[in-house]
Amino acid sequence: MDSISNLISPISGAIGGLLGGGKKGTGIEICPDRINLAQVQRVGQRYKLNVLSSVTVPEGIIEEGSIIDPPAAAELIQAVIQDSRLKVKQVATAIPGGESVIRIIPVPAELNDAELQEYMNQEAGLYLPFPREEADVDYQKLGYFTDEDGIEKVQVLLVATRREVTDTYLATFEQAGIEIKTLEIGSFALLRTIRDQLRAFSPEQAAVLIDIEFDSTEIAIIVNGVPQFSRTVNIGTYQIQEALQRAMNMAPSRDTDLLLEMSVPLTPIDSVDSTGISETNPGTNALVKMVGELSDELRRSIDFYLNQSEDLEIAQLLLAGPGAAIGDLDEFFNQRLNVPVTLVDPFDALSLEGSSNISTIQRPGLGVILGLGMRETLDERAQAS
């Protein structure tokens, strides 16, 4: 295992139970358009949101999940902490799924911990799109099974990132005077907030998590609470709004408020010419075209996974992220993919106290930061057990 292994924490505590206590956890989420901070406190078997703060990120500092300008990003981290009025020394943060590799690997069940560590270090390179020596790797045992030859094995979840990515995150927070206690993958933080919803599915049922972020969409197929397949699509709220503004001859803007105030039409649009633009409402046509492309990518991802998985059904689509606030997008995906769609509200999922002033438009986009805030409270539970 690498020195980073204590920081990349994929699913520990993500779907476990809760104990009493009052532990507080602080998370900071790095996004291309904003930096979010949340402090979450566990009180008995409930959670309370103590602080939620956010600062806007100018263009050119964070792109596609990569920190392009670490000194500027460090200043923004300091700014969001100052705005929160918290005294923060350690935080949990996350790397976007597009910067990570997630694989489930069958491993001989008889290996002890030391043998498993050596095995994973040797085998990890076979599953990575970049050289093993350039990777930070972590893993976690899942469940035991018997393969088609009658041999008992254990499924192991492998998580890896490029070392240059993790080093940049560590260095940026260090410049901000903050220690990263936990560095994980964003989708795992989001899963932590909807664990009760995931328990409703049987082992033969899969849920598809669709996290529409600023400049990309993370697609994860979840079985038994664990991502079995993940993919990043380069369509986010920015690309959708850019197409909308271009069609309406509007100046481009990184502020996606215009998009989030719109709804996707659920009936066919008439008067569409050969370019796909409606003479009467080119903006609406552009919106439908972009979310239609995203639904096509969803279908490809689902079909690819189902072709490799026998006796598995897609039970539900879980729509999350800032883009989930686009009006009627859940019904649009339902019509296109013929699968039930649920809009993820992490505040309702957690019965989170102290969140009454958070608007319905904001809520779907705050799942990752809430999951990061929960992280430290669950670390305490794991230590206690």
Radius of gyration: 21 Å
What is the beta-strand fraction?
25-35%
Distance between the termini: 24 Å
Helices and strands, in N-to-C order?
EEEEEHEEHEEHEHHEEEHHHEHEHH
Mean pLDDT over the residues: 86
Widest sheet: strand order? 13-12-11-14-15
Global shape? globular
Most strands sheet: 5 strands, mixed
Can you characterise this structure?
The chain starts with 23 loop residues before the first strand and ends with a helix. The chain has helices spanning 70-84, 113-123, 163-175, 186-193, 195-198, 237-247, 257-260, 282-306, 329-337, 346-349, 367-384, and strands spanning 24-30, 34-43, 46-56, 62-63, 66-67, 90-95, 100-108, 135-146, 152-162, 179-185, 205-212, 217-223, 226-233, 313-320, 341-343. The strands form 5 sheets. Strands 13-12-11-14-15 form a 5-stranded mixed β-sheet. Helix content is 32%, strand content 29%. The protein is of the alpha+beta class. The chain is built from 11 helices and 15 strands. Helix 1 packs across helix 3 (163-175), helix 4 (186-193) packs across helix 11 and helix 8 packs across helix 9 (329-337). The model is unreliable at 1-21, 269-279 and 380-385 (pLDDT under 50). A hairpin with a 2-residue loop joins strand 2 (34-43) and strand 3. It is globular, with a radius of gyration of 21 Å.
Features:
385 residues, alpha+beta, three-stranded antiparallel sheet, 11 helices, disordered N terminus
Can you lay out the helices and strands and say which pair or pack?
Layout: E1 24-30, E2 34-43, E3 46-56, E4 62-63, E5 66-67, H1 70-84, E6 90-95, E7 100-108, H2 113-123, E8 135-146, E9 152-162, H3 163-175, E10 179-185, H4 186-193, H5 195-198, E11 205-212, E12 217-223, E13 226-233, H6 237-247, H7 257-260, H8 282-306, E14 313-320, H9 329-337, E15 341-343, H10 346-349, H11 367-384
Parallel strand pairs: 6-10, 11-14, 14-15
Antiparallel strand pairs: 1-2, 2-3, 4-5, 7-9, 8-9, 11-12, 12-13
